[in-house]
Design goal:
This protein is an alpha+beta fold.
Length: 268
């Protein structure tokens, strides 16, 4: 009688690999989901709010129903949040992989509207949600040699973006709704040694501002960080290997057939 122990162990190893991927995804350092029942977001520890608009915080950022509503489209000056509220502590670690995810919905923008800026003390990763001269919404990417502008579509719904970098490098990737739209290099921090995460309206010149609803901003650091693009690719490769009947699943029989592990008879 043949015992399929080796095959079952190999199948379990595949399941373990998929579990490890999900654990890496969940390796979350900070989740700004804006659901805290606070009067203002700046009242949360380690959050610094910078505001030169001349308006109260609750008039330019407010928190109804777990959404951070930025309303700076009709204001002059800048208004943004920073984590942490000091550069003395290392918030973003250049020796670790970095993944920043955000989900947002555009209401209206003038010029350079809203940005996400991450600095690790060596490099900076900056994307800005803007409107161009002909009224199109865009993402402007601050690259090392040349910036890039990505036109946004379906702006009537929430959009998601991911900023990705890899440890000990200035690799800079941007995903929009899980699609890779930019791959380049990040410029150096300026001023030097700046470290932290900023989001909001960082442009103080006239005719720049945005009305944007932020659903969440999340920052992940640590061992390998996986984007949705990575996970989809891994799952696709696994299905190509073991999904013999093309039903989008791998059953135990299909896994055993695909592994093709040869075992010798084992007595009880």
């Amino acid at each position: 009688m043949k015992i399929l122990k080796v095959k079952v162990i190999c199948f379990i190893s595949i399941i373990g690999l998929m579990f490890n991927i999900s654990v890496s995804i969940a390796n979350e350092d900070r989740d700004f989901d804006f659901s805290d029942p606070e009067e203002s977001y700046s009242s949360i520890p380690n959050i610094l709010f910078t505001n030169t608009t001349g308006k109260e915080e609750k008039l330019v950022f407010f928190l109804p129903g777990g959404i951070l509503k930025q309303r700076t489209n009709s204001t002059n000056g800048l208004a943004y949040y920073q984590w942490r509220n000091t550069n003395k502590d290392k918030t973003i670690h250049p020796e670790l992989d970095l993944l920043i995810k955000a989900k947002f919905k555009i209401q209206d923008i003038t010029g350079l509207g809203a940005s996400i800026l991450a600095c690790d003390g060596i490099y900076r990763y900056l994307v800005t949600i803007s409107k161009n001269e002909i009224g199109e919404y865009c993402i402007e990417i601050d690259g090392l040699n040349m910036g890039e502008i990505i036109k946004l579509y379906n702006t009537s719904k929430y959009l998601s973006l991911s900023i990705i970098s890899y440890k000990n490098s200035n690799k800079f990737e941007l995903l929009l709704d899980s699609n890779l739209v930019y791959s380049g290099q990040a410029p150096n921090c300026y001023p030097e040694d700046v470290n932290g995460l900023i989001w909001g309206d960082i442009w103080d010149k006239e005719y720049n501002g945005a009305d944007i609803d932020w659903d969440y901003i999340r920052i992940y650091q640590g061992a390998k960080t996986y984007s949705q693009y990575d996970v989809d690719k891994i799952i696709s490769n696994i299905l190509m290997w073991g999904d013999l009947n093309n039903d989008g699943k791998i059953g135990i029989y299909e896994a055993i057939r695909s592994l093709q592990v040869i075992t010798s008879p084992v007595s009880k």
